Amino acid sequence: xxxxxxxxxxxxxxxxxxxxxxxxxxxxxxxxxxxxxxxxxxxxxxxxxxxxxxxxxxxxxxxxxxxxxxxxxxxxxxxxxxxxxxxxxxxxxxxxxxxxxxxxxxxxxxxxxxxxxxxxxxxxxxxxxxxxxxxxxxxxxxxxxxxxxxxxxxxxxxxxxxxxxxxxxxxxxxxxxxxxxxxxxxxxxxxxxxxxxxxxxxxxxxxxxxxxxxxxxxxxxxxxxxxxxxxxxxxxx
Length: 237
What we know:
single chain; Jelly Rolls; 7-stranded antiparallel sheet; 2 helices; Flp pilus assembly protein, pilin Flp
């Protein structure tokens, strides 16, 4: 007797089971993706939490110990002596203008360092403005020169590090970002902008940052200015 084929044909044409299987496979795939995403998000949040906790506790994610001082002089110059924060035409708020002092460090600020910090670092923008002709902005750490930026409006800007820095555990770098460009101040003269970076090994309890200038005319004619000052490895701000 021939087998009845109608039930077999209905089974082969049926899609209910196939749809059920597809939904089961799809649901399993989504579940797997969710588990993977959860793991990735959890790891990311854990890393972020660790970074935030480190910043709160004074240990940055890059291993730097201590607090960080950041000053753009938009609300004054708290803690600084010898200069005030002003709005310099064309540039904005800066510490300055800083006039001549015979090169002595008449502008300064003390920084209290973290006892666990192996080093303290300082970075800032230094503007050399207007008619400077072979005059220098002189940078000091703890009362001793570490380098100077010399501006000659005829021949450009140079940086000269002081001697004996290695014995003092100090590294100084300077990048002349803009030179012989009108940045601000008098429109009759061109200016220069340098970024100065200083690292002080085993800084002790405090580090004194100082700045002086050999400019020999009034600040309306030639000057220096400091901006975007950042210091790390500190205990108190």
